[in-house]
Design a protein that fits this description.
The longest helix has 24 residues. Helix 4 links the parallel strand 3 and strand 4. Helix content is 45%, strand content 13%. The relative contact order is 0.21. It starts with a strand and ends with a helix. The chain has a four-stranded parallel sheet. The protein has a single domain, classed as Response regulator (Rossmann fold), CATH 3.40.50. The model has no long low-confidence stretch (mean pLDDT 95). With 146 residues, it is an alpha/beta fold.
Length: 146
């Protein structure tokens, strides 16, 4: 299953989810990409993200933020957005994406939007990253049960 994760800057939430899905779900047939609705390619993942990913055993930490493009939409079997705003942007630019787009937390059996940790404390980063980690594991187990 090809999963596209979307957040705003493609520096925190979506790359963390993509890297974790690749790490935990690669042998289960998952492929992951992450993109942003307002990505700036010169930005880097914050240290809190890379440190968390390293603690989870992720070894491929290279990442360059990228703007979502039609090719990404076409590639994906499932598109998981972090906020309703991301879904709205996709609906406007890529209406064909709506049939395969869901909120990340909803798809993982939770509800609501995943807050953006950018500019927040290390504690907030850790809380958000633990949520992402938990949700990615739920997504993998959900697919395995199907």
């Amino acid at each position: 299953m090809k999963v596209l994760f979307i957040c705003t800057g493609n520096m925190c939430r979506s790359p963390a989810a993509g890297k974790l899905l690749g790490h935990y779900g690669g042998t289960a047939g998952f492929l992951a990409r992450s993109r942003g609705t307002a990505a700036q390619p010169y930005c880097k993942m914050p240290r809190q993200i890379t440190a968390f990913l390293q603690r989870q055993g992720v070894t491929s930490l290279e990442h360059k933020p990228a703007q979502v493009a039609e090719a990404d939409i076409d590639w994906a079997d499932l598109i998981l957005v972090m906020e309703e705003l991301h879904r709205d942007i996709l609906a406007d630019k890529y209406p064909q994406s709506m049939r395969k787009t869901q909120l990340f937390l909803d798809y993982a059996g939770k509800s609501g939007e995943l807050r953006d940790p950018m500019g927040k404390s290390d504690k907030i980063f850790e809380e958000v990253l633990k949520q992402i980690d938990d949700c990615v594991k739920k997504i993998i187990s959900r697919k395995e049960k199907e």
